[in-house]
Amino acid sequence: MRILHTSDWHLGRAFHRVGMLGAQAAFIEHLVATVRERGVDAVVVSGDVYDRAVPPLAAVELFDDTLHRLAALGVPTVMISGNHDSARRLGVGAGLIGRAGVHLRTEPAACGTPVVLADEHGEVAFYGLPYLEPALVRDEFGVEKAAHEAVLAAAMDRVRADLAARAPGTRSVVLAHAFVTGGEPSDSERDITVGGVAAVPAGIFAGVDYVALGHLHGCQTITERIRYSGSPLPYSFSEAGHRKSMWLVDLGPGGALGAERIDCPVPRPLARLRGTLEELLADPALARHEEAWVEATLTDPVRPADPMARLTERFPHTLSLVFAPERADGDPETSYARRLADRSDQEIAEDFVAHVRGTGPDARERAVLRDAFDAVRADDTVREAV
């Protein structure tokens, strides 16, 4: 069975205030053409269809058009909700839409109920595991601790139990929206840390033939059978080094697996430039970036006059301007920036406690801070879901 694996469309999202709806529509054209031209048997979309719980009308219209086009191809599609989606809204009409061959899986309780498709080698069971917010689904899965690993492990137990009851030789595909250990994040993904932990071990998915992951925006291979497709378009300059693509997976008899990357159309390349303003304006080696979307980091010790206006004369698509003056190591501003670099909310809060009273928090106080941050994230998730 030939499967096209994609995820993280983020319909409705902009790139540094540049509307991406046209680029997203071009990606859908590419997706439909790939399905038609490459003989795809099933499409899987591993979450974050929309960028937010209440998407703009134009994004909803594009999604509606996408559903109609996928259904018209006669190629089954399995789709789950991600942490950016409102599972309830995305799942509206799932029963009716499923009759057209587009199967929306947004209910955690249905993790162990697959969409079953067949080819000349037998049946393939597709299990959709939508994003599982631990605080909201712990009761459904009967776990003591509201943690990503616990709820995902319980969901996979249901998958394996259902698979064990099926005919020998039944192949299996799991769609999941999660941060799996070994994956490389970017600045584009929303933080899903709970209890100080965001990632889950790849071993949770043992026993299935292919795991189609969503959430991380870089296309990557965790193991031969566990892969992220990544987002089809860039949504932050941290993705400048990404090759945007989808996975074309051939699942043969006995679980034999082959995978090929299918490149996605990107409206412009990304470039992250660093140096003084005069260096960026004069360096002939930077000519290849003149039509790219540019993030410029200026290292001038004193902020130059009209930097954006001058930059856009050479790089008309400059979208982000960052000032990072080169300073001596002892400069207090440099020291403060270094203390904050790559630190989590929890670590910053613990540093603040130590700064105020002279000693850092003890184990009990760290737990209180962690619970407070988890409660805020869970509350944000609940507000977006309703």
UniProtKB/TrEMBL annotation:
Residues 1-218 form the Calcineurin-like phosphoesterase domain. InterPro entries: Calcineurin-like_PHP (IPR004843), DNA_Repair-Maintenance_Comp (IPR050535), Metallo-depent_PP-like (IPR029052), Mre11_N (IPR041796), SbcD (IPR004593), SbcD_C (IPR026843). Residues 267-355 form the Nuclease SbcCD subunit D C-terminal domain. Pfam families: Metallophos, SbcD_C. One of its GO terms (biological process) is DNA replication. It comes from the Bacteria. GO terms for molecular function: 3'-5' exonuclease activity; endonuclease activity. Keywords: DNA recombination, DNA replication, Endonuclease, Exonuclease, Hydrolase, Nuclease. CDD domains: MPP_Mre11_N. Heterodimer of SbcC and SbcD. SbcCD cleaves DNA hairpin structures. These structures can inhibit DNA replication and are intermediates in certain DNA recombination reactions. The complex acts as a 3'->5' double strand exonuclease that can open hairpins. It also has a 5' single-strand endonuclease activity. PANTHER family: COMPONENT OF ATP-DEPENDENT DSDNA EXONUCLEASE, NUCLEASE SBCCD SUBUNIT D. Belongs to the SbcD family. This is Nuclease SbcCD subunit D. It comes from Streptomyces cyaneogriseus subsp. noncyanogenus.
